[in-house]
Amino acid sequence: MRVFQFLAVICAAAFSPAWGHPGHEEGMETSSGAAVNLPPPQVSITTEGEYRVIRANGVPNHAIGQFPGPGCPNAASGQNYNFRMPLHPKTNASFTQLKQQAIGVAVNGVPFDPGTAEYWKNDRTSGWHIEALGGRKSLGLDQNNAHVQPNGAYHYHGIPTGLISTLGGGDGPKLIGYAADGFPIYGQSAQNRSSYRLKKGNRPGGTAGPGGVYDGTYEADYEFVPGSGDLDEANGRTGKTAEYPQGTYYYVATAEFPFYPRKLKGTPDSSFRRGPPGGGPGGGLNPGSQAGSQGKREGRGDPIQRYDKSGDGKISMEEAPPMMKANFSRHDANGDGFIDTEEAKSLPSRGSLTGNMGERPEASDKAPSDGGPMEKSAERKPWIENHLAELDTDGDGNVSLEEMTAEVAKVFQGYDGDRDGMIAQKEAEEGRVRSAMGGFLREHFSELDADHDGLISLEELRQAAVRMWEKYSQNKGGQTSPLPARP
After folding, report:
1. In which band, very low, low, confident or very high, does the pLDDT at 278 lie, cut at 50, 70 and 90?
2. 3-state secondary structure of 306
3. For residue range 296-322, what is the model confidence (pLDDT) as tens digits?
4. What's the pLDDT tens digit per position in 194-245?
5. pTM for this one?
6. How many CB atoms lie within 10 A of CB 319?
7. Got the DSSP string for 136-192?
8. CA 449, CA 277: separation in Å to the nearest integer?
9. CA angle at 232 for the pair 137 and 204, rounded to the nearest 5°
10. Which of 110, 129, 109 is nearest to 55 (CA)?
């Protein structure tokens, strides 16, 4: 413990001297010599209970490339990160597959986020996920194997060369950060080699894939070959390091795929979940919440305070009391499976007609309605109208069939975790994507499973959405059920 706290102090001391002057802003020199309007880097690494907490503004302590620039049209800006990870992480019997999120954070407060949002033909359902490194498509990475997201978040896709150059020490592997499960991440040394290799032959072509030789352009171009390197499926291994003389499991940032782990040996902390669009690579904890749920929240009647058992600043379906569950999708406005601080404002206050459940029963004797796609009451607005702002992507005041099916593709990609073209019940419960149909899928799984095989295909979800859209269009908003009976 003392070693880690000492390390955090040393790392902070080794970074920019501007940190000692909060509020003093100055331009950061990029590799091209041009100044960008970034605040000075700020990061703190503290121990709070059983957690290590890293708070940062995401500004690196080294020169960066020119942004906007070729392949990356986004300008870098300061962020508000609040990450935590267990001080004493434990390995699991199986690896935890990550779904496009920051896998960890560097000691300078910049996230490690190896995945991209790029796909073959821009089709998220294709399964052909484009890599930021090693392939033919340039995504504008700078000399630190990093670039910038649309919200201004600078993040590493590969070995952070600029960061490593700032770290002192001997010739041994350098501690560059921590993974979301709490295990350390080291820069590659001569003793560590990835066990992933390019597949032999050619990719499927036509409608099944992009064709061509497996050259590293896509994540699916690689396969894990046990024994071909020194690292496991998560790009990790067990061994002794300067910071862990008794030995520990640790990850390695490699110059070869997967560059950073795409799956973890332990359980990732919820603070690394990807937030809403524009919320940063890993989202961090919700603004205003305290890592480890150690801070005060607004009043004892605050529903987040009362029901957020995990301390991530949100209420999940599992944490919600019974009546709130029955009305969950009504308050989960973005369909991500959680009620956050802003969405919780729609919950009735304690002491109203809610009893003690944080939810108001219907004024009539009808059963509470979830306000979602399976709305039973004709007195309420149809689900499409309730989500018009999100579904109407071209802003013409209407929802076209194309917009409806585009929403289907988005939610399917977000919930098909293993990319096998089907959504299982567990994936429906665990998937997280900002989509109006997120709650729709989770809460009405059995009704969407038309062939009753326990799985939902893209076609089953699409047909249900088309029927809902057709019914809405025919009745001009007056449908009584968004999912008419199947023929």
Report:
1. very low
2. helix
3. 333 335 677 677 776 667 888 877 877
4. 999 999 999 999 989 999 999 999 999 999 999 999 999 999 999 999 999 9
5. 0.55
6. 18
7. SS-----TTSEEE-TTS-EEESS--HHHHHH--S-SSPPEEEEETTS-EEEE--TT-
8. 29
9. 40
10. 109
Angstrom distances, CA of residue 318 to CA of 134, 196, 415, 438:
41, 37, 18, 15
* Architecture in CATH of 298-368: Orthogonal Bundle (1.10)
Question: Where are the domains positioned within the chain?
Answer: 1-295, 298-368, 381-487
Please provide residue 184's backbone torsions phi and psi, each rounded to the nearest 5 degrees. Answer: -75, 160
Tell me which residue has tokens 């978040």: 153
Q: How many CB atoms lie within 10 A of CB 80?
A: 14
Higher pLDDT, 399 or 43: 43
What does the pLDDT look like over 327-338, one tens digit per residue? 787 787 777 778
pLDDT at site 217: 93
Tokens describing residue 40: 């000075």
Token pair of 263, please?
A: 């799956």
Q: Which CATH number fits domain 381-487: 1.10.10, 3.40.50, 2.20.25, 1.10.238?
A: 1.10.238
Q: What b/e readout covers 131-165, taking b as 16+ CB neighbours within 10 angstroms?
A: bbbbbeeebbbbebbbbbbeebbbbbbbbbebbbe
* DSSP three-state, residue 199: coil
